[in-house]
Amino acid sequence: MTRKEKLIQFLNLRDSVGIEVGPLDKPIVSKEECNVFYVDFCETEELRARWKDDPGVNCSRIWVDAVWGANSLADAVSASAVKKGLHWNGADYLLASHVIEHVPDFITWLNEAKATLSPQGQIRLAVPDKRFTFDYLRNESRVEEVVTEFVRRRRSPSAARIIDFALNVANVDCGEAWKGTLAKENLVKMYSPEGAIAIARDAEVNGTYHDIHCWVFTPFSFTQLMMDLARLDLLDLGCEWLVPTIYNDLEFFVCMRPMQDKAATIASWRKAQLSLDG
């Protein structure tokens, strides 16, 4: 399957209402395929202005229907639906490709995403696997780190997350990582120690938002983290399915849905974890 096919599998797009978070100029689903709301952190023109000098982005294809920031996601999308004259009953699905790892407080993010769903709605994510990306040298994110940023209600990456990112990200060849031929000592870091400390200080002192990978996952660590959050009563989203990272690729795919029963939620993630090889 293509990555799009993995993300939309079992969905009837034509008869669905969806949300796609952070599509920029390359949405997973088009407005011609279904009724979908594109969501980002700022309005269309501001987003186009931010990316106007990037040759890899077609700014004319950027469109934002709802801004997720000052308002909750549910409020932002329902207000957009009203403007379009649509009756809003919740989304059948929410898609986010390579988004969750950027979110400073992803517990609140997931809970707000869940609040937009119809009773049978699902959240579908494409998530980078740190074993094959520039996060190669970083440790998998731990539940205590995630809960700390939740308690602090972080709206921008903390100095701790920035330091962890900037001191450890390195140029990594995905194919070599799969072959197991990478020499850690030879990897070239993306930031100097001075540069890493400088951007962390800028965030701490000036409040500047630095867009980084706040969180680091493998399929195994992601399922473990979800189980841990469910045990702490911080997550009531169970795993519907998980597509692990395939050879020479660098991302995995997960579908989750609201569950009322705590034991069933934990069991769904345990089942997904047990299905993984290695």
Name some characteristics of this structure:
278 residues; alpha/beta; seven-stranded mixed beta sheet
Distance between the termini: 22 Å
Order of helices and strands: HEEHEHEHEHHHHHEEH
Radius of gyration: 19 Å
| Helicity range | 25-40%
- How large is the count of helical segments? 10
The profile of the biggest β sheet is: 7 strands, mixed
The amount of beta strand, in percent, is: 15-25%
Number of strands: 7
Adjacency order of strands in the biggest sheet: 3-2-1-4-5-7-6
Spans of 5+ residues with little confidence (pLDDT < 50)? none
- Averaged pLDDT: 94
Structural class: alpha/beta
Overall outline: globular
Question: Any chance you could write out the topology, listing elements then pairs?
Answer:
Blueprint: H1 3-8, E1 17-21, E2 35-40, H2 44-51, E3 66-67, H3 73-83, E4 91-97, H4 106-115, E5 117-128, H5 143-151, H6 159-168, H7 174-179, H8 193-206, H9 219-231, E6 237-243, E7 251-258, H10 262-274
Parallel strand pairs: 1-2, 1-4, 2-3, 4-5
Antiparallel strand pairs: 5-7, 6-7
Q: Mind explaining what this structure looks like?
A:
The relative contact order is 0.12. The chain has a seven-stranded mixed sheet with strand order 3-2-1-4-5-7-6. The protein contains ten helices and seven strands. With 278 residues, the chain is α/β, with parallel strands linked by helices.
Entry summary:
Helix content is 36%, strand content 17%.
